[in-house]
Amino acid sequence: xxxxxxxxxxxxxxxxxxxxxxxxxxxxxxxxxxxxxxxxxxxxxxxxxxxxxxxxxxxxxxxxxxxxxxxxxxxxxxxxxxxxxxxxxxxxxxxxxxxxxxxxxxxxxxxxxxxxxxxxxxxxxxxxxxxxxxxxxxxxxxxxxxxxxxxxxxxxxxxxxxxxxxxxxxxxxxxxxxxxxxxxxxxxxxxxxxxxxxxxxxxxxxxxxxxxxxxxxxxxxxxxxxxxxxxxxxxxxxxxxxxxxxxxxxxxxxxxxxxxxxxxxxxxxxxxxxxxxxxxxxxxxxxxxxxxxxxxxxxxxxxxxxxxxxxxxxxxxxxxxxxxxxxxxxxxxxxxxxxxxxxxxxxx
Length: 348
Known about the structure:
This protein is of the alpha/beta class and 348 residues long. A six-stranded parallel beta sheet has the order 2-1-3-4-5-11, with helices on both faces. Strands 7-6-8-9-10-12 form a six-stranded mixed beta sheet, sandwiched between helices. It is elongated and about 60 Å long. It is built from 13 helices and twelve strands. α4 runs parallel beside α12, α7 packs parallel to α8 and α9 crosses α10. It comes from Kribbella antiqua. Keywords: Signal. Pfam families: Peripla_BP_4.
């Protein structure tokens, strides 16, 4: 499938799913409405009205990255908006065995739901399945489990879509410049998410006759970003555009660019940090755009868990059940729309 076709498909799908306003039917439907068509009942409900108390356990990796820290912060803030949610937050950890133990504790506490962003999806699959078998609703966030039986619903970002969005933006900016030199600073190459981002970027560029001329990989850290960017700048005497996969490592990338004194290219970021958006808004930086990888996934997971336990639906869908999988969109943030996205951006 070409990137153009992929863009068309995921744009159509997101139109129905990215809203996540979560307004649907409640269980307190009057008797007269119970006899009405299901679509009418869904349309008349209000999901934000208090309902059955929902105890939710939340576990995620350690906040050793701006994006990951924002995941937990946004999740806690979202839970506080609802008087019928009790959120139990486990300490963030990159120890797989400790995270398994945290889920075991949630099972023993007989929580109603678990929102789980696993450090390792495969390793957490058995204990998540155990929770489901115990009658606990599991919402899988960001890193997928190996089994469909391990979660009721999975909410994901769109790594391939990030690459497509970044590549499409670069194509638009370099329109007609068929000899343009496009560079890419990836994250950890062994990770599927990095591979997906690079694939989407490559395919989007191909649609406008461009290619990745120079590519280096970093490790999602400031230090690795600076080192990778310095190597790239030494190897490529001419560059027209750079896509950096991650705004946290981008702090180092921009430091290397500043030290080089070069200004002949523009930079597109990835993930959507607040500091990058502020630079974009200022108009005084080589950073011209960034591509969102939502840090609201845990918050959305909490809202979905609440709906599932209270047996509510997504009000913007005709379907009366919460979907099995929801994939969030990867929009491009530029100076034209930065004010829309800055309030939910994470700090690097």
